[in-house]
Write a structure and sequence with these properties.
- The complex is a heterodimer of chains A (258) and B (288).
- Chain A is 33% helix and 24% strand.
- Chain A is built from nine helices and ten strands.
- In chain A, the strands form two sheets. Chain A has a seven-stranded mixed sheet with strand order 5-6-7-3-8-9-10, sandwiched between helices. Chain A has a three-stranded antiparallel sheet with strand order 2-1-4, covered by helices on one side.
- In chain A, α6 links the parallel β6 and β7.
- In chain A, α4 crosses α5.
- Chain A is globular.
- By secondary structure, chain B is mainly alpha-helical.
- Chain B contains 14 helices and no strands.
- In chain B, α9 packs across α10.
- Classes of the chains: A alpha/beta (258), B mainly alpha (288).
């Protein structure tokens, strides 16, 4: 994966939104293969919207997002608004095993190798003793581990995480960060929407600061500056019912070369 | 005692036919009900059962009391309402429950109108409340075919359906099967309701779909056991309900559904998974 120098994701003047109102607009840029990118910005900056656009759940209002040579199975996505029914009667093992969907599809069974893969994923996340528990019996942190174990099995080239550390304790964050670094070391492209700047500075080499448009994009140290952060707070405005038609052509944001 | 349980079925062909029809229904409908309950769509089953009425009524107008015409009409009406409701929910501000409510009420009133203007009130009673003691060969074959088809289809879409209930967003990211699965499931709901309305009527057929499924929640935890428990509970309710109606001279459809309802109330009290009485017992908690 690392030898390929084509970008994993290429945004061209991308505008995404709901009902003609853009949530993020005029995004242009590339995410290189194997990049570990933090996506930061205030609430309402459009981080989740951008991830939805990448995964194809939201059609662009204008512009394009191209995933060069990547297919649906190459992208794993952990959404923020988890519509997951945690009272659903399914065991931890079965929930995690669904990460193998691309291998087993609708009817494929779990052979020895696949069962072992599931068991390994469970062990990596420290869930081996909970395998036969129902997901309803898990704590918030344990459930997030389940979702990460499922991501592990998806074995995707591009992994999108929308606020993966929300409401989990320090130990869990540490373990999950360890997995993210492992993915990075394996040459996978990881984009994570995050809020904790210290965490981003410590673990993420590159950052995209978003505030309904690109405020700054580049090496984390040069992006997370007081000037940029102040600008990002100003830019996030409320939804404007009377918003005028956006005539802007090219992106006026500040692009920092690596 | 044994004789009291078996004799009515040995002696009377109409009782045997009723039993076969109800058992076939009990095989097809409760598993679908289990998924309706798990998806928190219990009341959608009710709405859909009302929606099939005008189709059945038009079928009746065209071909008289013909099983196939009424079933086909009911099926088309049910699917149309489900599709329109889904379409409106996806393209307007209405959520699916609200648009479904609007369409099924339209459909129901249209159905009652058609039956009242063109038929007579006895016909209306037949369609609304069913005639489980008068199932002919055609009706039995229809019910059995639907039960078979329903179980096979459920087996085929089982995995995506479970995912669609548990984590629909995940299913959408890994596969394009989310919408087809949802649609096929709706077809199964309508199909089973149509299969049952000959026997139990459009109003009460939902009972044999949902009550056993809800009852099962008090006895089982994983989905396969929920399905087994729901079918077992529906079998019991059908048999006991038929016998009750025979000995106490009660209308059969309500007797079956009431028996199923009694099973639910008992399970709510005694069920091994969260039954009320168990919660009242002072039991010490475990170490871990």
């Amino acid at each position: 994966m690392t030898t390929d120098k084509r970008p994993a994701i290429d945004f061209r003047d991308l505008t995404l939104g709901y009902d003609r109102h853009p949530a993020v607009h005029h995004i242009s840029g590339e995410v290189a293969r194997g990049e570990l990118l933090a996506l930061v910005g205030p609430n309402g900056a459009g981080k989740s919207t951008l991830l939805k656009g990448i995964v194809g759940q939201l059609k662009p209002l204008s512009g394009t997002v191209s995933l060069d040579g990547l297919e649906r199975r190459d992208i794993a996505y952990l959404p923020q608004q988890v519509e997951i029914d945690r009272t659903f009667p399914i065991t931890v093992f079965d929930a995690v095993a669904m990460g193998l969907w691309h291998d087993i599809g609708m009817w494929g069974g779990l052979d020895q190798a696949r069962s072992t893969a599931v068991a390994n994923a469970l062990r990596t996340l420290g869930l081996q003793d909970l395998a036969q528990r129902g997901v309803g019996a898990l704590s918030g942190g344990q459930f997030q581990r389940v979702l990460f174990a499922r991501l592990l099995l998806q074995n995707a080239a591009v992994i999108l995480l929308d606020e993966p550390f929300r409401a989990v304790d320090a130990k869990t964050i540490e373990d999950l960060l360890h997995i993210i670094k492992r993915w990075h070391a394996e040459g996978r492209t990881v984009i994570a929407a995050l809020h904790d700047f210290d965490q981003v500075r410590a673990h993420f080499p590159r950052t995209l600061l978003l505030a309904r448009e690109v405020v700054a994009w580049g090496p984390t140290k040069q992006v997370l500056t007081p000037k940029h952060l102040a600008k990002s707070r100003q830019l996030v405005e409320a939804w404007d019912e009377q918003a005028e038609i956006c005539e802007r052509g090219e992106d006026a944001s500040e692009r920092i070369s690596a | 005692m044994i004789h009291a349980l078996i004799d009515p079925f040995v002696e009377f062909a109409f009782m045997r036919r009723a039993l076969v029809g109800c058992l076939a229904l009990s095989l097809g409908a409760p598993p679908v009900g289990v998924f309706l309950v798990l998806r928190r769509l219990s009341l959608m089953g009710d709405a859909m059962s009302h929606a099939i009425l005008p189709g059945a009524a038009i079928g009746y107008l065209v071909a008289g009391l013909s099983v196939s015409a009424m079933s086909l009409g009911g099926f088309i009406a049910g699917i149309a309402v489900a599709l329109l409701a889904g379409l409106v929910a996806r393209t307007t501000v209405l959520r699916e429950d609200a648009s479904l409510a609007a369409f099924y009420l339209l459909s129901l009133s249209l159905g009652v109108l058609i039956v009242s203007v063109k038929g007579n009130s006895i016909d209306l009673l037949h369609v609304l409340f069913g005639t489980v003691l008068a199932l002919d060969d055609q009706a039995l074959i229809l019910i059995a075919s639907i039960a078979t088809l329903s179980m096979v289809a459920l087996a085929i879409i089982y995995r995506p359906l479970v995912l669609e209930c548990f984590d629909p967003n995940f299913l959408r990211t890994v596969s394009p099967l989310s919408s087809p699965t949802h649609f096929l499931f709706l077809v199964l709901v309508v199909m089973n309701l149509v299969g049952g309305f000959q026997a139990l009527g459009t109003l009460m057929v939902v009972g044999i779909m949902l009550l056993p499924a809800i009852t099962a929640r008090f006895w089982a935890q994983d989905i396969s056991m929920l399905i087994v428990a729901a079918v077992a509970s529906a079998f019991a309710a059908s048999t006991v309900g038929l016998l009750l109606s025979y000995y106490a001279n009660l209308p059969t459809g309500p007797a079956i559904i009431l028996t199923s309802g009694a099973g639910y109330l008992l399970s709510m009290l005694l069920g091994s998974r969260g039954g009320v009485l168990w919660q009242l017992l002072p039991r010490k908690h475990l170490e871990a």
